[in-house]
Amino acid sequence: MILCLVFCPALFAQEAPPLKFEKGVTEKHVMIPMRDGVKLSAYLYIPQGKGPWPVLMEQRYASLRGKGSRLSFAEMAGHDYVVCAVNYRGSQQSEGTWVGYRDLQWGEKQDGYDVVEWLAKQPWSTGKIGTFGSSQGGYAQNYLAVTQPPHLVCQFMIDTGLSLYHEGYFIGGAAKPNRFKGMDAVCRVAAHNRALMEEWFSHPDYDEYWQAEDCTLHFDKMNVPCFTVGSWYDFMCVGSIQSYIGRQHKGGPNSRGHQKLYIGPWLHGRFNKVNKVGDMLYPENANFDMMAEMIRWFDHYLKGKRNEIEIDPNVRYYVMGAVGEPGAPGNVWRATNDWPVPVEETPYYLQQDGKLSTSKPTAADSFTELIADPLNPEKIEGRGFPGARDARVVEEQENVLTFTTDTLTEAVEWTGNVKAELLVSSSAKDTDFIVRVSDVYPDGRSILIIDMIRRARYRDGFEQQKFMEPGEVYKVGFNVGWLSQIFNKGHKIRVTVCSTGAPFYEPNPNTGEPITIEFPEKVVVAKNKIHHSSGQASRILAPVKP
Q: Sign of the CA dihedral 155, 157, 162, 168?
């Protein structure tokens, strides 16, 4: 979603040059009317021939005029579909006021619904509509499903999300104002984005405002088959997995039992599902032909082809293992009827001297200190999650703590949701805690798999803020992320804890005052403690596969 696209240039200021598409596909710009008279900018890719054809639709705020996007839309159309790519209200050339995703949802304006029904009525349309898209285009599909347009038949989502508060704007309770300022670039009127940001920051807690953008409250209204692709090296994997679980078990009759989930060793994106990921080169079996699978899915549901996709396993997931080590376990696909799979939740305790062990600490009073200085934060570079890469450049900084197991004498598999339970104290009213999990190779490389942040004021939930008293010990518990990883014999498992990591995580001023769009002049240096004693034992809860 926003995380990888905020810096898209305003390409709508000049029209893209003509392209010649294969199979006689033609491209046409249209303005699609909404129920309130506003028109959305869309591009149609129309196959050669007489039609009518089923229609595939994607909604996004990012530019639709990049060469790669246009060629992929035309390639889809070459399989005898009309493809419609449409920009959100207020973005690019679309009319109206930019309000992010809000007018795609179930309020007075339902732009996704209106686009689907407009497409169904066109003379070149069979009236059967499927939707696709990744990230922002995944969110849009979840919102669309709740509105139940009559002609929506099926969906295909990649690296998706459900709740903009939890998975977008306030991840772990931590805001990212500098990142979202970059959304000016996608807006038809840049000032609309700043106005929307002011609205967001007037609702720092998960309240009714954010409930209105939370699909997890409306699974019962989702009523179409959906194929969902997730990526292990992507914090939004939580949205992909929750989308599958919610639709499969709580959806309408056409949703329950008609979902597919496919999770691989990839980064966030669409056509990057290949075996070269960050620093890692997985076997060839990690390559995934996204286009072929999308067409297979749509051919079945929109054209009635008997290609047996409906009897494929409900869930297929890639168990990651060590790379470059012949005979290492893992790096294989598994199939299962549902998710999550049975595991034994196993505590790994943080210990003094940077140890990580399944044995509970015995020391009566033990802790490790770290400093959170908002003006001199520790560094986590980049705007996208730096997974599948060596994390030592982060771990070797002064105020980054590492807790590492002894060398493993046998392989250990974690498959499922990893949770953190930190016992902490601080000199400040508020501060952040970042937890990361890495696979440490015998040569010292620490390959990052998952990480997550939690703002201490939201340690008891996002509905209200609770500030800390100096010296008091509090439990900060949160989900770190999903994974399926076999840590090979001879490797080590590492948990990293820090309180700053900029620019990836924008620093907390630590004052306990309301978070503002512009960074405040007043900040506090927080002196934090991670406790690991017998009575106050910080730990990771790992999903160990028996």
A: negative
Q: Is 443 within a domain?
A: yes
Residue 151 maps to a domain: yes
CB-CB contact of 407 with 538 (8 Å):
no
Q: How far, in Å, CA of 189 to CA of 198, rounded?
A: 15
Whether the ω angle into residue 342 lies within 30 degrees of 0, i.e. cis, is no
Give the full edge-to-edge strand order of the sheet including 400-404: 400-404, 492-498, 432-440, 446-455
State mean pLDDT over 523-537: 98
CATH number at residue 81: 3.40.50.1820
Q: For residue range 345-385, what is the model confidence (pLDDT) as tens digits? A: 999 999 999 999 999 999 999 999 999 999 999 999 988 99
Q: What is the CATH number of the domain that holds 433?
A: 2.60.120.260
Q: Are residues 251 and 400 in the same domain?
A: no
Range of the structural domain that residue 43 is part of: 26-319
Token pair for residue 272?
């990057």
Please give the Cα distance from 427 to 528 (Å, whole number).
Answer: 7
- Report the 3 state secondary structure along 363-389: CCCCEEEEEECCCCCCEECCCCCCCCC
- Is residue 425 domain-resident? yes
Report which residue type is found at 75: E
